[in-house]
């Protein structure tokens, strides 16, 4: 039996790969996509999600636009790593969608999909956590319908947008704290410490690009993102942060996890948006969440590549 899956996203190059992985995985049934501000404006994240699903021949999946700003304080800026349109300036190389976004807002679509589901739903939030915080606050009665949240975000040993904060948590620290601290539903957090270690090489991308037209289109979205990561990694490759989280949603246990109490810094100052993971043994009995700490890196890269290569040629 497949697991119903909803992806909450701000596409984003690695988000596009994550959506493709979900579409290529028979273990899950992608029943909805919700979008949020983040890597680019909410208008562009929604358009990008619709275009990626059109590429994947999955326009049956409803896409609902969500939060355009954080819960409390404005977001200072958007990511530069993904280019001007979120897809390295190549969003227009993807098919034009034949349908627009769902008329419902993201939280309403989440509510309706959870209510209608005949078994618990996995939600993979791979952008800022604003939509998920709003869902949990507005509809507490639906918690039992959520099998777990598989969240991409945070950095145990520091961040990428500041010394302390990873981008997704930094975008809306108050929402992240609402979702992760004293979690009301099961949570698996996939931090950038691990996703960065899972970075793929230019040769990996070339292999995907040669496999099919869909693979070539996905690889064609990467130039700006790849250029950023060449500088960051020091070698010719890039991190597929969000696809690593979706891999865990697709195949539970592909990432090794440990349970830790966590917090998110919401004060103004250099630590804002930082993830605080309490690794002290004396606090191991405190409530916590599952944090992904390790993986068979080559096995994970191979798993993602095999799934994406199987997407086939778009007619």
TrEMBL record:
Any coiled-coil regions, as ranges: none
CC annotations in GO: cytosol
Region of interest (Disordered), ranges: 74-101
Domain Inosine/uridine-preferring nucleoside hydrolase residues, every copy: 5-299
Molecular function GO terms recorded: purine nucleosidase activity
Listed GO biological process terms: purine nucleoside catabolic process
Signal peptide start-end: none
Gene3D superfamilies: Ribonucleoside hydrolase-like
Alphabetic keyword roster: Glycosidase, Hydrolase
Protein name: Inosine/uridine-preferring nucleoside hydrolase
Organism: Saccharothrix espanaensis (strain ATCC 51144 / DSM 44229 / JCM 9112 / NBRC 15066 / NRRL 15764)
């Amino acid at each position: 039996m497949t697991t119903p899956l909803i992806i909450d996203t701000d596409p984003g190059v690695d988000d596009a790969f994550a959506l493709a992985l979900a579409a290529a995985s028979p273990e899950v049934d992608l029943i909805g996509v919700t979008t949020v501000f983040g890597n680019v404006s909410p208008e562009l994240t929604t358009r990008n999600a619709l275009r990626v699903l059109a590429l994947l021949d999955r326009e049956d999946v409803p896409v609902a636009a969500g939060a355009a700003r954080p819960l409390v304080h404005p977001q200072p800026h958007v990511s530069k790593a993904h280019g001007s349109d979120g897809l390295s300036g190549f969003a227009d190389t993807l098919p034009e969608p034949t349908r627009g976004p769902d008329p419902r807002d993201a939280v309403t679509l989440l509510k309706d999909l959870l209510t209608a589901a005949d078994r618990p739903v996995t939600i993979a939030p791979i952008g800022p956590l604003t939509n998920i915080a709003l869902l949990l606050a507005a509809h507490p009665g639906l918690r039992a319908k959520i099998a777990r949240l598989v969240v991409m975000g945070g950095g145990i040993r520091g961040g990428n947008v500041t010394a302390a904060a990873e981008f997704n948590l930094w975008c809306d620290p108050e929402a992240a704290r609402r979702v992760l601290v004293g979690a009301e539903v099961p949570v698996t957090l996939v931090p950038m410490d691990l996703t960065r270690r899972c970075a793929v090489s230019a040769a990996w991308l070339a292999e995907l690009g040669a496999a099919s037209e869909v693979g070539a289109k996905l690889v064609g979205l990467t130039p700006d993102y790849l250029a950023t990561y060449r500088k960051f990694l020091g070698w010719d490759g890039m991190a597929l942060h969000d696809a690593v989280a979706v891999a865990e949603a697709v195949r539970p246990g592909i990432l090794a996890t440990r349970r830790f109490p966590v917090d998110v810094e919401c004060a103004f100052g250099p630590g804002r948006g930082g993830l605080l993971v309490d690794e002290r043994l004396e606090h191991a009995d405190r409530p916590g969440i599952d944090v992904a700490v390790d993986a068979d890196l080559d096995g994970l890269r191979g798993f993602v590549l095999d799934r994406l290569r199987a997407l086939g040629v778009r007619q």
